[in-house]
Amino acid sequence: MTDETREVPDPQGEPSDPKSNESPVEEAPVNGASSAPASADGIEEDELTVQDILDAADREVREPSDEHLADLKRVTAEYANYRKRTEANRAVERERVTGDVVNVLLPVLDDLDRAEKHGDLEADSTFGTIAAKLRSSVERLGLTPFGAVGEPFDPTMHEAIFQQPSAEAEAETIADVVETGYHLGSTLLRAAKVVVQVPSDG
Prior knowledge:
Layout: H1 50-62, H2 66-117, H3 126-140, E1 143-146, E2 158-166, E3 173-179, E4 181-184, E5 187-190, E6 192-199
Parallel strand pairs: 2-6
Antiparallel strand pairs: 1-4, 3-6, 4-5
């Protein structure tokens, strides 16, 4: 037996070809050609170029459909509502934080009022200058004092700690302010504690 390979004839007497048993291989498209079916003019039916997409987008921008217009209006309305809610929440939070800071300073402002009533707070003194700066600073934060002698009594803003009958009084008025009231913006931060002068029965 030699090293040479012998061809074994097939039953019909023809030598067998070793490549004949391999399954046929389809040839790949030349030069990257697509396997999609082509139309009569040679252009592929499923071919979609970038320019086609840009043209379609341009047409939609120039002449948007009713559905897209409705979506645009809805998104615009939702964004406007979101901005309103955000701004309102921001304003509420800013006022809350400012109120927390100002509440700490209210006892100091009360001491300044008492000192002023007793004549211990002269405007041209060093202490008087500091007091004026402090009051000016809190007013810039939105703090507004209220409650003065002679003003009409308002139970929604004033807390009556004492009633003083008077024959001269025709209506309930403030006779004395024990503790100044304050508004912070549109919020009632603290009611004013007052002595109310009321008409006497006699």
